Amino acid sequence: MIKRDMYMDKYYFREYKTYLENLDKSESTVNTYLDNVITFIEWFNEANSDSFQPGTCTTIDLRDFRSHLLTVKNAKVNTINLKIMSLKSYFYFLHSYNYIKQDIARNLKKVKTQGPPIVKSIDEQTFRKIRREIYRSGYKHHVALIELLRHALRINEIITLKIDNLHLKEKGSFIMVYGKQGKYRKIPINSDCRNALIDYLEMRQKIKSPYDNLFLSERKTPYTRSGLWKIIDKHSAKIGTHISPHQFRHYAIKKMVDEGVPLTVIASLVGHSSIQLLSDVYAVPLEEDKEAAIEKL
């Protein structure tokens, strides 16, 4: 039995799960939030003489937990901040539905990072190597996958992509992507992507399945996140490295930034509601960018 299943009838977890689902959070996000709250509860029970109860927990307990993650567990900043975000969501829910008298996590601050954020991207050479490896494999669905990743799609957006979302023609091909917050966005695609999709569709349309997802596993059901991860992991291992699907998104965005594409255009293409994140993360020069600039002097 999964640990979170043991908590579903405690601490309003079942109601909280429904609350997150009604916010259109993905299954993986819901499970992550629940698991993070469980981590806090287990820490609380070990650190205190009394057992955890939502109504008796205090802001000091949350701060102590944050300090525990930072100084004892030596957890990464992103890991800590995700747990803080989960707790803020949980206690906001409890307060909003009158399960507790006050939102004790309202003013809980995230851990600040030192220096500019680090983009977990891949360089042009690495991208070309894995793209070449995938093309050489001959797997048409893998080729279509890498071309969609090259267009900065999120892994969940690829999983939920339907055949009817493809609009392929000689000029002006595009796809309609169902992204975060339940919003559709139109993404123009280049000729390489269009050709890869056309080649794959010849095979896909022969597969009989009740699902209309573009990508289906060997069981003729939609791929899971881990299923697509394994495809990329298999090919990246052959070139002697490890690449996650999300790194292709970072690569594509960084490439557009480097090519001088306006941030407003990039934000529209990749599904960011604000250009601030793009400016803070992707417009930050890497060390090799600085070195190349100096060499031009």
UniProtKB/TrEMBL annotation:
PROSITE patterns xrefs: CB, TYR_RECOMBINASE
GO-annotated molecular function: DNA binding
Key word Phosphoprotein present: no
Keywords: DNA integration, DNA recombination, DNA-binding
Domain Tyr recombinase per the UniProt entry, residue ranges: 117-295
Boundaries of every Core-binding (CB) domain copy: 7-95
GO biological process: DNA integration; DNA recombination
InterPro entries: CB, DNA_brk_join_enz, Integrase-like_cat_sf, Integrase_catalytic, Integrase_recombinase_N, Integrase_SAM-like_N, Tyrosine_recombinase_XerCD
Known function: Site-specific tyrosine recombinase, which acts by catalyzing the cutting and rejoining of the recombining DNA molecules.
Family stated for the protein in its record: Belongs to the 'phage' integrase family.
Name recorded for this polypeptide: Tyrosine-type recombinase/integrase
Record organism: Clostridium bovifaecis
